[in-house]
Amino acid sequence: MKLSATVFVVAIISWAVNSAVSIRFPDRISEDSNGSADHPLRTAVFALGSFWRSEAAFGCLDGVVRTTAGYAGGSRPNPEYRSLGDHAECVQIEYDPRIISFRELLDVFWASHDCRQVFGQGPDVGNQYRSIIFTNGTEESRLAALSKEREQTRSKSSVVTTQIQQLGTFYPAEPEHQKFELRRNPLLLQLIGNLPEEELEKSSLATKLNGYAAELCPPKIQRQIDAKINDITRKGWPILREI
Ligand SMILES: *[C@@H]1O[C@H](CO)[C@@H](O)[C@H](O)[C@H]1NC(C)=O
Ligand SMILES: *[C@@H]1O[C@H](CO)[C@@H](O)[C@H](O)[C@H]1NC(C)=O
């Protein structure tokens, strides 16, 4: 058992090293996964419907280091899934501003949901699915307001319901809601070595594969990962048949 886990890890590392999409094994990305003093990571929070999908919508973007599903925008202390009070389901995105900007994240935000549906996304109806851009500081508020105006000018037949709010407390959701799309995919979980809970939540690789599992990666990356996984499964790996 121990040995097979080691073989897993070794193979995954070589997979990651060879990978054209530069998926990296979480243990190998200590320094840059948290930024550095010179180049700190930044954080953005958006509400755009179910946080399962929201997390996946941002997870595969270049420059996004980590995503977390959670609750924000309301007043109830310590919200939980079954009692979130007036909060909205949200995704918190940790990103490297040298690679992706708040503006680009806003573009993905608009492209990833229907901002004109009132209090809901598709079949998910309710206050918890409302659309919100959370901002930290005047520059982000300005960019958010501009992008909302631009979105509104696309069509005047309905109103953009998105709110722009100063970010207060972000409450991470319960573990079973983190990387939800990836969690539903046993093959992918196995391929990354069945990470323990805490690592799964913090891992950049899991963040990326969560987007892949939901088929929300940019098409080129989606195809690259597909090919990599097909290659591994065709070779009969990683199922260990003998020691
Ligand atoms: C990165 O940050 C996470 C949580 O913010 C922490 O648990 C982890 O130890 C940090 N890793 C490094 C290498 O500093
Ligand atoms: C707001 O941004 C500043 C740096 O620009 C950062 O130190 C602070 O943690 C951010 N606040 C939140 C709630 O993300």
Plain-language structure description:
With 243 residues, the protein is an alpha+beta fold. It has a domain of 148 residues: 2-Layer Sandwich (Peptide Methionine Sulfoxide Reductase, Chain A), CATH 3.30.1060.10. Helix content is 39%, strand content 16%. It has nine helices and eight strands. The strands form two sheets. The chain has a six-stranded mixed β-sheet. Strands 4-5 form a two-stranded antiparallel ribbon. The longest helix is centred in the first third of the chain and has 17 residues. The termini are close together. One 2-acetamido-2-deoxy-beta-D-glucopyranose (NAG) binds next to loops.
Please give the alpha-carbon distance between the first and last residues. Answer: 10 Å
Oligomer: single chain
Please state the average pLDDT score: 85
Overall CATH architecture of the domain at 31-178: 2-Layer Sandwich
